[in-house]
From TrEMBL:
<dbReference type="InterPro" id="IPR002401">
    <property type="entry name" value="Cyt_P450_E_grp-I"/>
</dbReference>
<dbReference type="InterPro" id="IPR017972">
    <property type="entry name" value="Cyt_P450_CS"/>
</dbReference>
<dbReference type="InterPro" id="IPR036396">
    <property type="entry name" value="Cyt_P450_sf"/>
</dbReference>
<comment type="similarity">
    <text>Belongs to the cytochrome P450 family.</text>
</comment>
<dbReference type="GO" id="GO:0016125">
    <property type="term" value="P:sterol metabolic process"/>
</dbReference>
<keyword id="KW-0472">Membrane</keyword>
<keyword id="KW-0479">Metal-binding</keyword>
<dbReference type="GO" id="GO:0009414">
    <property type="term" value="P:response to water deprivation"/>
</dbReference>
<keyword id="KW-0349">Heme</keyword>
<dbReference type="GO" id="GO:0009737">
    <property type="term" value="P:response to abscisic acid"/>
</dbReference>
<keyword id="KW-1133">Transmembrane helix</keyword>
<keyword id="KW-0408">Iron</keyword>
<dbReference type="GO" id="GO:0010295">
    <property type="term" value="F:(+)-abscisic acid 8'-hydroxylase activity"/>
</dbReference>
<keyword id="KW-0812">Transmembrane</keyword>
<comment type="pathway">
    <text>Plant hormone degradation; abscisic acid degradation.</text>
</comment>
<keyword id="KW-0732">Signal</keyword>
<keyword id="KW-0503">Monooxygenase</keyword>
Length: 462
């Protein structure tokens, strides 16, 4: 069993939930609320949540009350759900009754017009524009460029002690910029990176907008980012009129009629959605491979097999479809690490589910991690065992990319960039973990202790 502590950043993250506009509606239907306790007025069960690992808190509730229960944390009344049927209702079949909900400070920072915060027509339009930039057809073309970013990253780690998460963030940031701006990307990379890194520092800070606070600096960096993006937009409009296959090209198409502000909010939003998520999954993969030498050997053999057939030519989409063992390692990592433990929705009206009332205005949290760790769906759930994915998981038992209306439009790109990096990494490098690595931190995505420091070496070529 791993010993787990909760880092302070999770506390700060969840604390900002206090700023949710809370709306408690009267009960109209004559149905019971889901089982569970609401704890003390206002603070609810916040202490219970913080006095233990949040996943233990949720798991003990699931054990006591079943797969749907109510609780009250940090000023909001919530219904937590952890059954595949309930997840399907909230995310897929009745998704129009459950709107996305975020603390106001997060909306201000990412931009109010970003895709995550919306429902209905504006959301569907943005989704169509994002999806078409990230279909296999579109991202196939950038594989050689992803490869050169991967090769450069790996080279820069040679014979060094590195912080895996920090380095992976640079890799995933560069791939995100490539997918958004195409090859124009290098021109703006450093400016964008500098501003984005200031912005993210304020993301988990207290949202107090006074000179000197992290939040204030971060909002300033947000404005500077918008200015750089405005420059990129006008440059594109003036100089090259030809079609671009990247996300910016998709957003800029005249007939779509997006304003510059809408484009900026969504570009910043996609960088946010793409970078830390993929970087933390990569960090977990390195950890699990280091801990499971037979799995690492199987992945290495598979990748060497691909490399042998290619004599230094770059990878193709088809090559990436011939990596079943490596793909199962990615799936199993997504399951065990469940970096997005849960997501948030809010009931827009009273909803009935399995004889219970989910009242209008209450938050509804599908608990992905509990679903992914349910022994009914995954035998011996704490064990890292990629071979379990030799059989396809049942619907709505494995949702690392969510499901339904807001499911991740970047999932193909995420898997592609992970495969490309692992191809070069396992065939040419080896690594060893340094220091203790049993804790999990939430920043806010689940992450190995200290971002997983490792020593990274080139393999001695025979
Ligand atoms: C392994 C890495 C990733 C994981 C685990 C992941 C996971 C998720 C999940 C679970 C959601 C749905 C959240 C919800 O329903 O509340 C989501 C949404 C989203 N993701 Fe990802 N994601 C990853 C990488 C990416 C990448 C690389 C991109 C962009 C290129 C991206 C862009 C988005 C966007 C734009 C949304 C919002 C979609 C909407 O609201 O309609 N993600 N992601
Ligand atoms: C999403 O929901 C649909 C409908 O229930 C289901 O067929 C599909 O398998 C689900 N996707 C995942 C990833 O579970
Ligand atoms: C398809 C399937 O086996 N679903 C089960 C997964 O686990 C939950 C409990 O956590 C059960 O309610 C489902 O029936």
């Amino acid at each position: 069993m791993e010993f787990i502590t909760i880092s302070f950043s999770l506390f700060i993250l969840l604390s900002t939930l206090f700023l949710f506009k809370s709306s408690v509606a009267g009960r109209r239907k004559n149905l019971p609320l889901p089982p569970g306790t609401l704890g003390w007025p206002y603070i609810g069960e916040t202490f219970q949540l913080y006095s233990q690992n949040p996943n233990v808190f949720f798991a003990s509730k699931v054990k006591k009350y079943g797969s749907i229960f109510k609780t009250h944390v940090l000023g909001c009344r919530c219904v937590m759900i952890s059954s595949p049927a309930a997840a399907k209702l909230v995310l897929v079949t009745k998704s129009h009754l459950f709107k996305p909900t975020f603390p106001a400070s997060k909306e201000r920072m990412l931009g109010k017009q970003a895709i995550f915060f919306h429902q209905g027509d504006y959301h569907s339009k943005l989704r169509r524009l994002v999806l078409r930039a990230f279909t296999p057809e579109s991202i196939k073309n950038i594989i050689p460029d992803i490869e050169s970013i991967a090769v450069d990253s790996l080279r820069s780690w040679e014979n060094r002690l590195i912080n895996t998460f920090q380095e992976m963030k640079t890799f995933t940031f560069n791939v995100a910029l490539l997918s958004i701006f195409g090859k124009d990307e290098v021109l703006y990379r450093e400016d964008l990176k500098r501003c984005y890194y200031i912005l993210e520092k304020g993301y988990n800070s207290m949202p107090i907008n006074l000179p000197g606070t992290l939040f204030h600096k971060s909002m300033k960096a947000r404005r500077e980012l918008a200015q750089i993006l405005a420059k990129i937009l006008s440059l594109r409009r003036e100089t090259n009129k030809e079609n671009h296959n990247d996300l910016l090209g998709s957003f800029m198409e005249e007939k779509e009629g997006l304003s510059d502000e809408q484009i900026a909010d969504n570009i910043i939003g996609v960088i946010f959605a793409a970078r830390d998520t993929t970087a933390s999954v990569l960090t977990w993969i390195l950890k699990y491979l280091a801990e499971n030498p037979t799995v690492l050997q199987a992945v290495t053999d598979e990748q060497e097999g691909i490399m042998k057939g290619k004599d230094d030519k770059s990878l193709t989409w088809l090559d990436t479809k011939k990596m079943p063992i490596t793909s199962r390692v990615i799936q199993e990592t997504l399951r065990v690490a469940s970096i997005l433990s849960f997501t948030f929705r809010e009931a827009v009206e009273d909803v009935e589910f399995e004889g219970y009332l989910i009242p209008k205005g209450w938050k509804v949290l599908p608990l992905f991690r509990n679903i992914h760790h349910s022994p009914e769906n995954f035998t011996n759930p704490e064990k890292f065992d990629p071979s379990r994915f030799e059989v396809a998981p049942k619907p709505n038992t494995f949702m690392p990319f969510g499901n339904g209306t807001h499911a991740c439009p970047g999932n193909e790109l995420a898997k592609l960039e992970i495969l490309v990096l692992l191809h070069h990494m396992t065939t040419k490098y080896r690594w060893s973990m340094v220091g203790p690595q049993n804790d999990i931190h939430y920043a806010p995505f689940a992450l190995p202790q200290n971002g997983l420091p490792i020593r990274f070496y080139p393999k001695k070529m025979p």
